[in-house]
Design brief:
CATH architecture of the largest domain: Alpha-Beta Complex
Number of strands: 9
Radius of gyration: 20 Å
Strand content: 5-15%
CATH class of the largest domain: Alpha Beta
Structural class: alpha+beta
Mean pLDDT: 91
CATH topology of the largest domain: Aminoglycoside 3'-phosphotransferase, Chain: A, domain 2
CATH superfamily of the largest domain: Aminoglycoside phosphotransferase (APH), C-terminal lobe
Oligomer: single chain
Number of helices: 11
Helix content: 40-55%
Shape: globular
Strand order of the largest sheet: 1-2-3-5-4
Number of domains: 2
Low-confidence stretches: none
Length: 340
């Protein structure tokens, strides 16, 4: 972060907090960050009312984006609804619409201290040093937060105008991802991804489950845990939609199984897939329908996102466009579908 941006963040903070006085600012690398935007972790010294304030600034993408649209207003709305429903978030969240400060719109939220399990839970020393009971508490606390999201009211709350999926069904959501796959691959053919979605369309479930608010990117790495192994903040809401709870659960179970297959390890105290399903069914008060189909759909969606991540990285580096079919997640999912 250059000195110009440091000065811009300081000026923005003093503009929003006239009584802050002579604010100094320290910029640090965030302990964790997403792929879809730039995160700035700043500490304000001398900022009223506290002597030190830690903030996270989430900037709207200014380069090649991970998704065609990046709706910061939606992210604020869904997090506010989640907080009202008892889901821990990094809030309050402030949306700055004026791009003149940083050259883009951005969100500002308090930094929540805690532990981040990361992309691969078995590589998290804090988690692996915990007892089996503590590990299980991490897992069930995570699932309880997910169930609380799925129980949030949304019809008539205004969220239906903010979140994709409020007025459609599984077929419409599948079509969105089919179109996204073509866009995500850029100039490269999307055949390998389209084949995965073609299987999903051929086997589309006949029954539409009840719809819920969906978190979207359901991963342990998107939760901050406190020292007592409880969720302190659920973060990264850019993939939030409305749809069946099965979509979120399948994203978690399918990607967890994939990670265990790639790395050959699992956290000893974690629930297995059947226990995860039973835990969530109890929390929702209904069975999860056609979860196997939703897991294939989740893997196809995840494969498309990681391909786009690779494309964005190549664009930033000026490297040749990658072949989508060569990505390990795409190959894994294609082999999985071939065995069905």
């Amino acid at each position: 972060m250059g000195s110009d941006r440091v000065d811009a963040v300081r000026a923005w903070y003093r503009h929003r907090h006239p009584g802050a006085g002579d604010v100094t600012l320290t910029v640090e690398d965030p302990p964790g960050g997403g792929y879809s935007n730039e995160l700035l972790f700043v500490r304000m010294h001398g900022a009223a009312p506290a002597p030190e304030t830690a903030l996270v600034v989430r900037c709207e993408p200014t380069g090649p984006p991970l998704f065609p649209a990046y709706d910061l207003g939606m992210q604020v709305a869904v997090q506010e609804a989640a907080a009202a429903g008892g889901v821990p978030i990094a809030g309050p969240v402030v949306l700055e619409e004026d791009p003149s400060w940083l050259g883009c719109r951005f969100l500002v939220m308090p930094w929540v201290p805690g532990r981040h399990p990361g992309e691969v839970p078995t590589e998290c020393s804090w988690l692996m040093a915990a007892t089996a009971d503590e590990q299980r508490q991490v897992h069930t606390g995570f699932l309880d937060a997910l169930a609380a999201i799925h129980r949030l009211p949304w019809a008539g709350t205004g969220l239906e105008a903010q979140l994709r999926g409020a007025h459609g069904g599984l077929g419409d959501e599948l079509r969105w991802w089919e179109d996204y796959a073509v866009w995500a691959c850029g100039p490269q053919p999307a055949d390998a991804l389209q084949e995965l979605f073609a299987w999903c369309r051929t086997h589309l479930p006949a029954t539409e489950p009840p719809r819920s608010v969906l978190w979207g990117d359901v991963r342990l790495g998107n939760v901050v845990f406190d020292e007592r192994y409880r969720p302190a903040a659920v973060v990264d809401w850019e993939m939030a939609t409305i749809g069946p709870a099965e979509s979120d659960v399948a994203w978690f179970t399918a990607l967890s199984a994939m990670t265990e297959r790639f790395f050959g390890t699992r956290v000893p105290g974690f629930l297995d897939r059947d226990e995860v399903v039973a835990h969530h069914e109890r929390a929702l008060g209904r069975p999860l329908l056609d979860l196997g189909w939703h897991e294939v759909f989740a893997m196809a969606r995840a494969a498309t996102v990681v391909v786009r991540t690779q494309v964005v990285a190549a664009l930033a580096a000026g490297s040749p466009d990658p072949d989508p079919a060569d990505h390990p997640v795409v190959r894994y999912t294609s082999r999985y579908v071939e065995r069905l």
